[in-house]
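Re: the request from the purification team.
They wanted to know what the chain is likely to look like in 3D before they choose a buffer screen. I agreed to run a prediction and write the result into the notebook, where they can find it.
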Amino acid sequence: MRGYIAITLLLFSVADSSPAGLSKRFGKGGDVIRGVNLGGLFVLEPWITPSLFKQWEGPNPQAVDEWTYCQTLGKSECESRLKQHWGSWVTETDISTLAKLGLNHVRIPIGYWAFTVKNDEPYVQGQIPYLKKVLGWVGKYNLNAVLDLHGVPGSQNGFDNSGRLGGIHWQDSQENIERSIEALEGLARIAAEFPDVVDAVQVVNEPANWGLSKQGIIAFYKQAYTSIRNIAPNVLIVIHDAFLSPAEWNDFNVPGWENVILDTHTYHIFVKDRLTLSRDNHLRATCQDAANVRNFNNKLWTITGEWSLAITDCARWLNGFGKGARWDGSMNWEMNGPVYQGATCAGQNSIGAWDSATRMFFRQFAEAQIDAYEAGSGWFFWNFKAEDADDWNYIKLAQNGLIPNPPTDRHYSRYSLDSKRWDIKLNSPWCHE
């Protein structure tokens, strides 16, 4: 997870990329994907589970990501702690709850190190039995899963959610690419083992175009497609837009490809233009997102793979372990101070601190985004839960009425959802056509 704004493209058949050219439905959800990410399970992010990193809080933290977590603890202690975490962070009750909330999909991030670890790497293994247990629950409650390779050797983006914070070195060696393919082949074998549950494999999460070669990314996508297809011929394959504009993918066409998804992630907090919006303008901004998704959907099927209700970056350690926030100026950024004078992070991430107007806004913001992303083929919220960040906690938000439960129960719906899905008309106090 990292906040950039782009448009997601979903290519079910590149040769015939119109909606009518769909050759395989996306799981049991049919045309509309409504899902959440199971983030923080197999790839640690300090802001999702701060309890795991709390002991290193201070001016010079030793552990800031999963690499340094294991490096600092040593493999034996790291394995012990992570096994306890893997066995408790996602429970059968969580999956049952997600099904009861009306969702039909989960996206499961996992790192390459679950399949391949070198002697000089601190990572530990043992994730696969826990992954299979989760997939069993997913199937039991009639959901589908996307297996997402969230971190690759060398890091594809330098974010802590790649497993290692720092430089972008994924394309530095062919060995890194080959080990990434090895991990994907492992995921493909799991997909083949759970054909009624796993309907898609994502080949790499959020590769950063600013630190990688676009042509190298595309070459990897092609290699990954072939490798996965050889093992799991019927699974859908997800490729990310690499934070490039939609125009960069307009002419992307690989003859013979089908059932391929181009994924993007839309957040309102990691770039100045969105973070500084008023509440009304956050709602209006979704109108442009909706229009873009709908317009591209005339050519290519669309999906938004990550989004949240956050309108501040105040979640503790969201910007990295030990780092502050742009919102209140506790993090060094382009405004050299808070978003506005007196801006505070106090109460921003706690439902209990939100007044009635704030609660109404978040309900509207949830519906606005759901409507926007369903102008395409659906969405995955980030995240299913978080220890201390309620605006990122789908289960808590839905149970408190701030996200529609089920997702079709909308009070402020901007779209005529009873109309033909591919001819949705904007209908809201924020959008005008």
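For the purification team: Residues 174-193 form the longest helix (20 residues).
Please add any questions underneath this entry.
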